[in-house]
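Hello again,

I reread your note about wanting to compare the complex against the isolated chains. To keep things tidy I'm splitting this into two emails, and this first one only covers the full assembly. Below are the input lines as submitted, including protein chains and any nucleic acid or small-molecule components. They are followed by the predicted structure of everything together. The single-chain runs will come separately.
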Amino acid sequence: MPEASSLPRPPAAGRIKAALTVALFAALFVLAFRQTGFNFQALFSGTADFFRFFGRLVPDWSALPQIWPPLIQTIQIAYVATIVGSLLAMPIVFLASSNTSTDPVTLWIARTLLTVLRSIPDLLWAALFVAVLGLGALPGVVALVFFTMGVLAKLGSETVEAIDPGPLEALRAAGAGRNRTIVFAVVPQVAATMVSYILYVFEINVRASVVIGLVGAGGIGQLLLRYLNFFDYTGVAAIIVVIFAVVLLIDGFSVWARSKLI
Amino acid sequence: MAHIRFNDVEVVYRTGLKALKGVTLEIPRGQFVVVVGLSGAGKSTLIRTVNSLVVPTKGSVTVNDVNVTASRGGALRRARSDIGMIFQTFNLVKRSSVLRNVLAGRLGDLPAWRGVLGAFPREDVAYAHDCLARVGIPEKAFVRADALSGGQQQRVGIARALAQKPSVMLADEPVASLDPPTSHAVMSDLKRIAREDGITTIVNLHFIDMARDYADRIIGMRDGVVVFDGTPDEATDAVFEEIYGRPLESKDLRGA
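Full-complex prediction:
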């Protein structure tokens, strides 16, 4: 057993780098903490208000007949957007995967397109299309189509790049073209995972579809906004409970369906 | 007339590794050639230049007097559809049925739209069943590929290559993942089919006894150079020690 002092020490450069990294994160945290005005005192002194507000959140079930139609629209927005977005994402999936793309330039273009698509959050897409197409469900669908394409094409191309390359090589050796190779060697390997991702994106889209209503993109969010503006908290409460139940139901179904796939 | 011709083929990988250092060979139609050598000797690279999975950095390979090395796009696909290939790890689509794996061998000769839709003509489906019968597993057509044993999977690999109706067959260490009895069974099938159809075959092996048992001609490679080219009778233990650059060991034999 060598003495502690005789043990080899890691190089000084590495230790300095680690210390600097920690210091940088700490400094950024302190800065952000100050500038956001975050403090525990306000949090505690606000607790009473918080409960008083919650006290007023008694669901008014008479609002239900008003809630159903926009709620169904919310789910329909998510459903249509998931299917259209998934279909549009498929070509991008294969063009953005290094093992199935046509050439390096196309690969680069497809990946750049993906990066741009994903850098725009769903709410921003919705605000954008409400401005262009006006209020209603249509801008909501279009917004979520773009959002779906971004998410799914990224997840999909990562899945495609992780497949067993053996069958690809075999079909290339047999003289099959690129599209035939994709259909025969790639699709069977990724189909189950892709369907599972589509269900997952549908879950996300249902929740996103609620939120984008707040900027006028149709569905239950638009009603929620109206109730909030009129301080109709009992109506708001009813919406919250219903959304909670529906999202839970859809998530449960999606988790169950995905568990059946793999 | 030579069926396959290697003209001073050189392969330098992007890593700077010189895998082939000027190989010149002529292989007549119908010959069953076994290429031997240690791993890293350039065997895999050599057979992959025949269908341009590896493109030579210098020299060229011709099959039926068609320069495969210079072919691109549709011409290359046509050349490849005449060259079957089987692999050490079988390279089947595991989640697809055996029949669909075999039908994939027909893709090269099919119009693109039929291939993409999987709309195979009746005679192609019948031919795929025939190929499975010839490798002895006609009853496995509708079983998923990953439900088969290693030996059966390699037979599907042979059937897929056979479905191409090829004039050339390449086999890269086809029995390295199999046990000794299965190895012999698969090699016998390969040899029998090559004989029956007059297919020119190049097989990579590193087992001395199997090379001697099945080859019409043995080519020995070492460090990217052909160091022996002769009949199995000429390939004595001394010759193999020369090819391997070391005394022979028990692992150089597959055994029975």
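For quick reference: Chain B touches chain A at residues 51, 53, 76-85, 87, 89-96, 100, 104-105, 107-110, 112, 115-116, 118, 157, 160-161, 164, 170 (CB under 8 Å).

B.
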